[in-house]
Specification:
InterPro entries: AB_hydrolase_fold, Hydrolase_4. It comes from Parafannyhessea umbonata. Pfam families: Hydrolase_4. This is Prolyl oligopeptidase family serine peptidase. This protein is an alpha/beta fold. The protein has one domain: Rossmann fold (3-Layer(aba) Sandwich). It is 37% helix and 20% strand. It contains six helices and seven strands, in the order E-H-E-H-E-H-E-H-E-E-H-H-E. The strands form two sheets. A five-stranded parallel beta sheet has the order 2-1-3-4-7, with helices on both faces. Strands 5-6 form a two-stranded antiparallel sheet. It is globular.
Amino acid sequence: MQPNVGRTVGGGPWATRSAPTAAERGMVTYVFDFCGGGNYSQSDWQDNMSFFTEQHDLESAAWELSREPFVDERNLFLCGASLGATVTLTVARANAQIVKGCALLYPAFNPHDAVRAACPNRDDIPDSFPVMGMNVSGDFLRSCYDYDFYEHIPAFPRDVATA
């Protein structure tokens, strides 16, 4: 049985180029943009994008993909890069009943610490802030301020590969 891979945000053009290679090897792949994604995003921008709206986007995609007749729902893996890897692991942890494992490419587990270092007081988080050539919303920054990824990482009971 070949694995099915839901490929999430991160890696820019690399993500789109990797899907055909996986498909040639018999894997079902699905690449998507988070609503309000990053510099390589082709989706519509959402000013209220947060870590948790990205989690919801990926959960919706994973559940829909798992219901397709050509997908082995017992063999679903998620893959993400950078912040997408962080979202991937969070979704895998919350949906361990359908996610068999995940691959995390250069995961960004530091947003919690980075936001707290930049704004020690949550009430001082601005409505918008430039990060890596784009403006992210205060909603996104507050979601990262509130969610310590390291508290939740150990809860996923399946295999995780990192690169």
